[in-house]
Hints:
By secondary structure, the protein is mainly alpha-helical. 40% of the residues lie in helices and 0% in strands.
Amino acid sequence: MPAHRDPSSPDPYRVLGVPRDATPAQIRAAYRALLLTLHPDTHAEPADPARLAQVVAAHAELRDAGRHNTQNAAPPTGTPPAASGVPIPVRVRSSRRERPDIRVGPVRTHLNG
Length: 113
């Protein structure tokens, strides 16, 4: 969990109903299922806006934590790999253009008599 989490807010895993070792796909699936049941556009009866706000906040927190954890899990890239010695063809274009960017033709007007 991120360190900036408010201690008075409910546990995001409990709000979404997923275990602490849930994968990002499981978190996303639980969020979508809850969103379908709580969103006011999906049902004629009024939904609980406070519960919907909790679900959205919990998903945002876990989504950001998941991104942060995956970025930290990858080892830092050091030096780039050595060149393989294979020549790569490069095409250089001059900054001068031979043709204009926009071609303008004759303007036609239609008059209604």
